[in-house]
Structure formats: structure tokens, C-alpha cells
Amino acid sequence: MQMLLINWLLIGVLHTSADQVGIAHAIIGVPGFFIMLWGGARADRVDARALMIRTYALAALPPLVLAAIHAGGALSYWAVTLTALALSTAIAYAGPAHAAILNRVSGSRVQEGVTATMALGFLVQLLGLGLAGQLDRIGVETVLFAQCLALLVGCLMIRRLQSFAPHPSHVHDSVLASLLEGFQVVMRDRLLVSLMSLNLASMLFNFGTFTIVFPFIMTQTYGGDAAFLGWMLVLFFFGGMMSNFIMLAFMPLAQPGRLFLGMQLTRALIFVLFWIQPPLWVLVLATFLWGLNMGVTMTTARAIVQECSQAAYRARTLAVFNALSIGAQPFGALLLGWVISVFGPLDAMLPGMLVSAAIGVIGIAATPIWSYRSSEAS
Q1: Domains identified in the chain, total number
Q2: Which pTM does this prediction carry?
Q3: Where residue 160 sits, what CATH number does that domain have?
Q4: CA angle in degrees (0–180, nearest 5) for 123-157-113
Q5: 61-85 pLDDT, tens per residue?
């Protein structure tokens, strides 16, 4: 809901240029890199459940503020950007706690836990996008109130979980010491370093392409309105949901790294379909295939990290992984926003196309990702 809402308010309502949209996404996303690392250090030292409840309750406030601004006729570039920044900061802070709790709830079935969570997450995104796609008809305030309500319902659901005490050896560590220790743990593991580095490149150009290039292609190249953009996003996330439900039937996966790298290579081919400005039915097919692809890559990468992370350092390890992923997105949006303004939306698909192919080749030839075997499948 947030992705469609912010993009449509900036592009469709305020008619913001591509480079300015890229700057807005950078402002919204860059602080999340540091906030997520801080959240990871905190989540290993406190009750992660309590941290999530407090943070989600605060996250419900920015949509209400933006709704009041819009109702008062004062909607502006900075109003949209700063309220989105507040919400993204809260979600980034709670992210590591969520991931750490997931491992404890899943027990020895980490792959299934991650995949089921991703699948249901995609399903909820479909519902949110379906609602947000009607904002021209039902009003911006209605969508923002629904977003606020969703976050408050999340608080109530989290309260149903049991408390999760922190690991006793890290309760008295300083936040800075915890962060440094988490980085050291990651840097000592060649598999984690390789996976996080390649995922960083993937999020920089591939998710950046989805964040900013995709909306401009839908609205400018194909002349779509908010409903058209919303339904295309629904189609994308439906593909992501389907890929996760399909993977659940084959879990545990013995070598998830091979799926991760294989999807990078096939994504380059999918981007070619967008680049040639195909007829509408091919565009629809390519969007669905991209969603399938992204669902597999996001789930396999996260599952490998959660399987390989040590229990005492899990929140910080996942914080590094998530921070790099989130930190890459705004820089990708900033760069690709400039590419759009200079070369146009279609040619902005080229960087992601080339980087996807490079990630697949490098990952197979020079990293342990291809040969990684899951302990769940043994």
C-alpha cells in the first residue's frame, strides 16, 4: 500500500519529475540503513515482542498526519516525503526483531517459516494494493486510515505471541559494541558475505527498477492511471505469492543458493521484455513473471541468511542483511531516476538487465552460494 500510495501521490497527483521522485525515495530509504542496524542491536538485547508492539503503534501515526495534511489541502512534496520517512524508519527499526522472532517460532523448519511468511506477506500486499489502487475513487484519506488500521491490527496480533527474552550474554553490551560484534560475525562467514554482497547489487538495480522505473513505464509509457498501476502491482505481488506457495510444496530445499542465482539470470531475460515496449498482453505476462522471480530470490536469500546465522547474533546478522537491502533501494531509485530523466523509462531497464546477468555469472563462478547445502535437507 505504501509503495503505490507514495509513488502515485508524487507522480500522479503532484506531477513530480523522475529525478525528484528518485531523491524522495533516497530521503525515505537511506536513514533506514542505520535505523535497522540499531534495531538489530536492540532486538538481541531486549524483548523483541515488546519492541515490535511499541514500534508498530508509533508507525500508525504518520498515515494519520498525512491524511490530515491532505484533507487540509496542504499536500506537498515534502509532506509526502517526510511522513513516508517517519513510517519507513519505524518499520526498519522493527524489522530485525520480526526476523529474529520468526526463527524462534519456526524452530527447525526455518525455510518453511520464511517462505510461509513471505507468501502471506505477498497476499496482504495484494489486498493493500487493491485498496490503494482505488484511491482516486474512494479518496486518499480512506486509504491512509486503512493503512493506520492495518498497523494497529499488527500490534494486536503481535501481542498474542509469547515474550522472547534476549540472549543472556548480550543484555549488558552497549549498542555500539553489539553492532560491531554483529558485523564481525558476518565478515567471518564467506557465504554470508558473498550472499549479502550479491543481494546488495540485486536490490540496488533490480528492486530500484521496480520502485521507480516500473511506475514510470506504467504511467508514462503506457498512459496508465492509479488503478492501472495498482492492478499491475497486484499482478506482480500475486506472482511473488504464487512462487512462495509453490516453493512450500518442495521444502526443505537442498540447495536454495542455486535457485537464487538462477533467478538472477532469468530476470535479465524478463527485463528485455520490458525494454522492447511490448504489447499490453506481453507486458502483463512479463510483470507476472517478474513477480514470480522476485518472490523466489527474496525468499531464498532470506532463508539462507536465517539458516546460517548464529542464535546469539541472529537479529544483528539479519539487521545487516536487511539494512544492506533497504539501504541499496534509495540509491538505486536516485540513480535510476536520473537515468529516466536523461534516457527515458524504457532504457532505464538496461542497468538492471546487465547487473542481473553479472550477479548470476559471478555467483556461480566465484562464490560458495551455488554449492551451499541446507542443513534442513540433510
Answers
A1: 1
A2: 0.70
A3: 1.20.1250.20
A4: 55
A5: 999 899 899 888 888 899 989 988 8
